């Protein structure tokens, strides 16, 4: 069976396993638990509309999870079926950001590409954030200034409350010399952000907003 689970879907499944573990720890009513189990699995299967029998057989045992260790084992079994983020080299990254001189790229071998929905890093020297997002099967690079807001708020990429900062990017306007500056609050810590992403909707909206102006 080929990998078929995206990183954000894996995070979603992880969240559902936590719901089950919490449910078993706090609920005694068997009927309520059964409903919870059925609902969790239904939500997960919803992500995979065209799931094959093999894929369903892999996901179905989720309903038996009661404890944290069982959840971890289940997630471990799923991990080989997670699709990694598109392979990318340092040279390719430099090509994506041709205007960034002395671009500092994080060491790619330290990144688990199965755990990211986008590649993002902060260049502390220049206070710039670099994002590489897969959009419509292509890698899109978006860079911009980053300023910590020193407070928590909703991130435009993961939609969760985290330490955020203002990300400002200039994009080409309708006429050649016109630039539009857009600001969005996004997570300071891109790794944390990626762990939070359970849906790609916000990420796609973000690219659309910036790219299509
Ligand atoms: Zn975030």
Could you characterize the architecture of this molecule?
- With 213 residues, the chain is α+β, with helices and mostly antiparallel strands.
- It folds into two domains: 7-81, Up-down Bundle (Monooxygenase), CATH 1.20.1280; 90-211, no CATH class.
- 38% of the residues lie in helices and 24% in strands.
- It contains seven helices and five strands, in the order H-H-H-H-H-E-E-E-E-E-H-H.
- It has a five-stranded antiparallel sheet with strand order 1-2-3-4-5.
- The longest helix has 20 residues, at 7-26.
- The protein is elongated and about 65 Å long.
- The protein starts with 6 loop residues before the first helix and ends with a helix.
- It binds zinc ion.
- Zinc ion (ZN) is lined by residues 155, 157-158, 162, 186-187, 193, 196.
* SSE string, helices as H and strands as E: HHHHHEEEEEHH
Strand tally is 5
Mean pLDDT: 93
The hetero compounds bound to this protein are: zinc ion
Global morphology: elongated
Structural class: alpha+beta
- Indicate the low-confidence ranges by residue numbers: none
Q: Helical amount among residues, as a percent range?
A: 25-40%
Report the radius of gyration as a whole number of Å: 20 Å
Oligomer: single chain
Helix count, DSSP H or I runs of 4 or more residues: 7
């Amino acid at each position: 069976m080929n990998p078929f689970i995206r990183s954000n879907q894996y995070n979603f499944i992880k969240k559902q396993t936590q719901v089950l573990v919490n449910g078993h720890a706090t609920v005694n009513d068997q009927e309520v638990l059964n409903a919870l189990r059925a609902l969790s699995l239904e939500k997960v299967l919803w992500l995979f509309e065209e799931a094959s029998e093999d894929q369903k057989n892999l996901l179905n045992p989720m309903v038996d999870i009661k404890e944290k260790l069982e959840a971890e084992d289940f997630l471990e079994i799923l991990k080989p079926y997670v699709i990694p983020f598109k392979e990318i080299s340092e040279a390719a990254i430099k090509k994506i950001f041709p205007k960034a001189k002395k671009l500092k790229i994080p060491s790619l071998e330290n990144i688990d590409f199965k755990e990211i929905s986008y590649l993002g890093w902060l260049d502390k020297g220049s206070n710039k954030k670099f994002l590489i997002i897969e959009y419509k099967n292509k890698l899109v690079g978006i860079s911009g200034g980053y300023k910590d807001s020193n407070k928590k708020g909703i991130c435009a990429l993961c939609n969760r409350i985290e330490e955020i900062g203002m990300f400002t990017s200039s994009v080409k306007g309708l006429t050649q010399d016109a630039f539009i500056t857009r600001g969005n609050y996004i997570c300071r810590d891109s790794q944390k952000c990626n762990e939070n992403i359970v849906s790609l909707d916000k990420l796609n909206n973000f690219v659309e907003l910036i790219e299509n102006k």
